[in-house]
Specification:
This protein has 11 helices and 17 strands. It has about 375 residues and is α/β, with parallel strands linked by helices.
Length: about 375
């Protein structure tokens, strides 16, 4: 059997480039607590993302918790069931109650019409996810949030580097949480960030991620430890130097998939949104009823020949034990999301995926066996 192909593989720059940054850390002996690399990385991200206020965190879930904690929220948060579990866990760990709203069949992002139906007098916020890096209907959600006086927070874990309508996608909303996990299109080994819409929000997040400490002698609130280390920040600075090259390589993989699979009966490829420069972070497709086999059969076929695709997102959050008893989790309230999780499959995509290995994947999908 050929070497296994996994759904993703992190980009790593030349080790020699990172060693020189480690030598600087070893020399300074500053390892954490918003040291020089932390400050440089925040400044570089502000410029790259075109935002004024950003706060680095240890990971993406803590970024979302910090975003929720920075605002005076209580009650219910309308969110999507079609996401990684960190989205809903962050809401509940923040003392808020998740309320699920169905997704759009076009892009599997939360449906603004379903969001409006889910709003009650107890609703305080909307947490929407830019699924696979495709933008939510940001205009409709913003109008909805303003009309009902709600906070609008984006889980932008998939959206680093995406531009929409001439803006960095994570710059939309009151706050956006980013993930720099190893599986993401941009990684710092592990890490995250919150894009804050104001200096006050950034100050609140900076306090929260540092135990609630305001000064050397003052602890003004209950916080947690979500600071990014100097090693992760230094690695992020280095990764930014290579990021545009990574996007170009991912674009090549995405294009080859679309050329090979767009005409295959029973496969629906999720299109890139209009007015958007994508980051090609995932390659999701929907296996329809008229395909040659079911989604799960295709998943197993690929695995048998060493190709590890992923049913991402499966299971649906509204169907897992932690949340299945919520009134909003009823399957008849979420028909699009429940259908999608039975048909979705994400194919491997990463910068170093060779054309030969990609052809193996395409042949496995079509049913010709490995090349």
């Amino acid at each position: 059997m050929s070497d296994p192909i996994y759904v993703t593989q992190p980009f790593l720059p030349p080790l020699s480039e990172f060693v020189s940054l480690l030598e600087t850390i070893w020399s300074s002996k500053i390892l954490t607590n918003q040291g020089p690399f932390h400050q440089q990385f925040e400044a570089r991200l502000r410029g790259y993302l075109g935002v004024e206020h950003i706060s680095l965190t240890a990971n993406g879930m803590l970024a979302l918790e910090a975003a929720l904690g920075a605002l005076p929220l209580s009650g219910e948060v309308v969110t999507t069931p079609y996401s990684f579990v960190a989205t809903t866990h962050a809401i509940r760990r923040s003392g808020l109650e998740p309320v699920f709203a169905d997704v759009s069949p076009v892009d599997l992002n939360i449906d603004p019409i379903a969001v409006e139906r889910a709003i009650t007098p107890r609703t305080c916020a909307i947490v929407a996810v830019h699924c696979y890096g495709n933008p939510c209907d940001v205009d409709a959600l913003e109008a909805l949030a303003k009309r009902h006086g709600l906070a609008l927070i984006y889980d932008a874990a998939h959206a680093f580097g995406v531009r929409h309508k001439g803006r960095s996608l994570p710059s939309f909303g009151d706050l956006s949480a980013l993930s720099f996990h190893a599986t993401k299109v941009f990684n710092t080994f592990e890490g995250g960030a919150v894009i804050a819409g104001s200096a006050d929000n950034k100050a609140a997040i900076d306090r929260l991620k540092n135990f609630g400490i305001t000064s050397e002698t003052t602890i003004s609130s209950v916080g947690f430890n979500a600071k990014m280390s100097e090693i992760n920040a230094a690695f992020g600075l280095l990764q930014l130097e290579h990021f545009e090259t990574c996007i170009q390589l991912r674009r090549r993989v995405d294009r080859h998939y679309r050329e090979a699979l767009s005409g295959v009966k029973g496969l629906r490829l999720i299109a890139h949104a209009a007015d958007t420069e994508p980051n090609y972070s995932y390659f999701p497709l929907l296996v329809e009823e008229d395909f040659r086999c079911s989604r799960d059969e295709l998943y197993e076929e690929l695995k048998q020949v060493g190709i590890y695709a992923r049913r991402y997102f499966y299971p649906l959050l509204s169907n897992i034990p932690s949340y299945q008893d919520l009134p909003s989790a009823r399957q008849d309230e979420l028909p699009v999301a429940n259908a999608a999780v039975e048909r979705i499959l994400c194919l491997p995509i990463y910068p170093s995926l060779s054309t030969h290995d990609q052809d193996r994947i395409i042949e496995g999908v079509i049913g010709r066996g490995p090349g």
